[in-house]
């Protein structure tokens, strides 16, 4: 069942809710007694338009014009005249889809810490149920970065005939021990907050501030801080720019996110492994049929470029591009023009090959 438009954002994206009323068996064996996905769309789902499905990052949301406004919107690479764009808030998130603060139908109270573990495989399966409800039989482009890239890879393996093009930015096929260690450090910060174990909506806020500060060290780069957070006064003994920046980032996240969703989605990221149950990573990647563009970011310390090169190496006929950036992992949220140019070239090259084959 699909409930159609609830509201229209200032940016013009329509907001909808999909309701799945049957039990949803998770990869862990636990069961969600139904779920909801809140999703945004841009453009009209009609004949002749190209469908573009976007998968968002860990603390991202379905409003792609908010965080990828350099690529989506009027006159942009993906626009409402030529495209129907859809992005869903993932299971476990706090932006309208079923998550830890949703009501558990068994108790009539929010799940809080009782929300079951979800994996990237579960998230991809839920997106596909939404896709089936909309009767979408073919998607021109599936695109995602970071946790969104993990979803895109997994979904393209689950449904290899569904996608024409696959674009994965700053992501991986298996989350690394390094990435898991970063996430566990952030979860330790949550657990160090004495309110974390209380069943209340604002539990763990101070822990979440600290977790975000830790995360920023993996999202950016040594040179990012050197060039943007260096203090000019040599005699300074306290109140450094880098210190206030870390606190500012923590405060910003607390205003829009909650600690429960941060815990659940960081766990989902840790469990990401496309080869699980498929005979290994290489075999799984080789099953992808979509024309594929893999983009790495030169200064990314969280998802280093060797992870993207590995993906490109094992997906048949994949193209790899490396983006030079000062901003580390977060470069995909900064370098819109470079991303557009790279994606444009990818589409152009794919069209040339198709014409030659035809």
UniProtKB/TrEMBL annotation:
Keywords: Acyltransferase, Amino-acid biosynthesis, Cytoplasm, Methionine biosynthesis, Transferase
EC number: 2.3.1.31
Active-site residue numbers: 146, 300, 329
Residues engaged in binding substrate: 212, 330
Residue ranges of domain AB hydrolase-1 in the record: 52-335
Catalyzed chemical reaction(s): L-homoserine + acetyl-CoA = O-acetyl-L-homoserine + CoA
Pathway membership: Amino-acid biosynthesis; L-methionine biosynthesis via de novo pathway; O-acetyl-L-homoserine from L-homoserine: step 1/1
Group of enzyme by EC: transferase
Compartments it resides in: Cytoplasm
A Pfam family that the UniProt record links to this protein: Abhydrolase_1
TM segment ranges: none
Entry-linked HAMAP family: MetX_acyltransf (MF_00296)
Its job: Transfers an acetyl group from acetyl-CoA to L-homoserine, forming acetyl-L-homoserine.
Family per similarity comment: Belongs to the AB hydrolase superfamily. MetX family.
Subunit structure: Homodimer.
PANTHER family for the chain: HOMOSERINE O-ACETYLTRANSFERASE
Protein name: Homoserine O-acetyltransferase
Species in which this protein is naturally found: Algivirga pacifica
Gene (UniProt): metX
